[in-house]
Amino acid sequence: MFLTQLSFLSQFKSFSFGRRFLSLKVIMSNLEQVSSNKCFGGFQKVFKHSSSELKCEMKFGIYLPAKSEFGKLPVLYWLSGLTCTEQNFVTKSGFQRYAAEHNIIVVAPDTSPRGCNIEGEDDSYDFGSGAGFYVDATQPKWSTNYRMYSYIVKELPKLIESNFPVLPEKKSIFGHSMGGHGALVIALKNPTGYKSVSAFAPICNPVKCNWGKKAFTGYLGEKEDDWHEYDTCSLIKKNGSPFADILIDQGWLMTF
C-alpha cells in the first residue's frame, strides 16, 4: 500500500530552486534539530518544537530525499498507532527506501502530547500519553493539551511548509490503527487539503469498539453525538466520501 501511495504522489513533478534548500535552514526559532542521519541518498531527521496547540514540546521525524536539496517535493504525513512515538515508523518500517525512490518527503509526528503532568495520563496504554486519538478534547481536564486533531491539521503542516521544501498542494496522509483512524477522519473532514488518504488496519468505527469508547468518553465526554464527528463510518454515512478511492489494507488474521 505504501508503494501505491508513493506512486500516486510521484506523478507530481517538482520545480527547481537550484541549491536553495541544500542547508535546509529553519525559519522558526523554536524548531530544533534532534538528529540527522544519511539515508538512501537523503536525510532522516528528527526535530522538536514548542507546540502552541498542545502546550508542550513535540517531536516529529521527517525524511528528506536527495532531490529536496534542489526543489520542492510532495509531502506525505504518517500517523502512528497506540503507544507509538515519532520513532516507530522512522526506525521500523524501512519506508525511506521507497520515499527516496519516488521523491516524497515523509513526516511522522508523535501520537500525543508529552510531559503535560496531567493526573492519569500515563496510567494506561490506550488513553493519555501515546494515545491522543487525533481528536480535540473538550473535557476540561484534557482540553488544554490534547488537541491532536488541530495539531495535525493546522499547526504541523504550517510548521513543515514554512521550514522545508514541500509542495503544500501535493499533500497526502496515511496511518496505522489509531493513526489510520486519524488519517481517515482528518482527510474526510478536510478533503480539499489532501490529494489522497489510505490506512493500514485502521480503527474505522471507534464509536463501536472498546478503544474508541474509552478514548471518546475521556476526551469528548458522555454525549455520543459528539463522538461521531471523529468516526470514519459515521462521517461517510452522513456526508459520503469526497475521495474517488480510499485504500485500506486489513490483515485477516489480526486479533483486534
TrEMBL record:
EC number(s) per entry? 3.1.2.12
Q: Which regions form coiled coils?
A: none
UniProt KW Ligase keyword: no
Question: Is Endoplasmic reticulum one of the keywords UniProt gives this record?
Answer: no
Subcellular location as annotated: Cytoplasm
Question: What biological-process terms (Gene Ontology) are attached?
Answer: formaldehyde catabolic process
> Matching NCBIfam families, A to Z?
fghA_ester_D
What job does this protein perform? Serine hydrolase involved in the detoxification of formaldehyde.
Name under which the protein is recorded: S-formylglutathione hydrolase
Q: What is the lineage of its organism?
A: Eukaryota, Metazoa, Spiralia, Lophotrochozoa, Mollusca
